[in-house]
Design brief:
The protein has about 250 residues and is of the alpha/beta class. The protein has a single domain, classed as 3-Layer(aba) Sandwich (Rossmann fold), CATH 3.40.50. The strands form 2 sheets. Strands 2-1-3-4-12-11 form a 6-stranded mixed beta sheet, with helices on both faces. Strands 5, 6, 7, 8, 9 and 10 form a 6-stranded mixed beta sheet that branches. Strand 9 and strand 10 form a beta hairpin. Helix 1 crosses helix 6. It is globular. Bound molecules: glutamine (GLN).
Amino acid sequence: MTSTPTGQGQGRRAEVVLVYQSLLGIYGDRGNATVLAKRLAWRGFDAVLSLVEPGDPLPDTGDVYLLGGGEDAAQISAVNALRADGGLHRAVDRGAAVLAVCAGYQIVGRSFTVADGPSATAEGDTEIVGLGLLDVTTTRGPVRAVGEILSRWTGRDGDEQWLTGFENHGGYTVLGPGASPLATVEVGVGNCGDGTEGAVAGTVVGTYPHGPVLARNPALADHVLELALGEPMSALDRPEVTELRRQRLAAVRR
Ligand code: GLN
């Protein structure tokens, strides 16, 4: 049965690509894909969710590409497969959006280090070349950043919003001049304990929080969709989403 398309999307196709769930899928980050597909469908888009695993080519038709968190070894496999594929660079070149979380964030940067390994430096770390889609560099931090994270983000309408999530990373990330911080840390470590969280350049967004971050922060989900589709997202009134967010904010401030 086909239904008449209604709402903003008018049945237009919008494709969300979930990249390497088997390698970059810890802490339920695949939920970011569910959130985006759902918010598109609620607005009347024909939301297509594509799951891509290493060895499969990344589709050249995606509007937004999602990378999640992963352990160091999985992260290295993922960056090698993505470099060999080349599809993420093509996607960014044609204006698609990328949301990269934690290990994914480190992967889209210039380089990251993992502890030990065959080509370890004098300090005992191995430097891995990233995809260079974000001007950020990650090295091992003094302590693992674990716990709830709360940050302030200036949303798409210019309003300041709270971003909530859960961080767990040994890598600390420093931004270069080509990237801007996504948010300012209130609780937690964020990029490297310098008060900044995440990075943005054009349509590429990197961030540390899991949660999934887009389930906890629907305004950020809509911002990613706006980057992907190049048009403002219509308002959605979903009381259950608002209630989840209220609970999360209350919990981190407790
Ligand atoms: N392996 C990376 C680190 O520890 C990323 C971890 C993660 O994705 N949660 O820094």
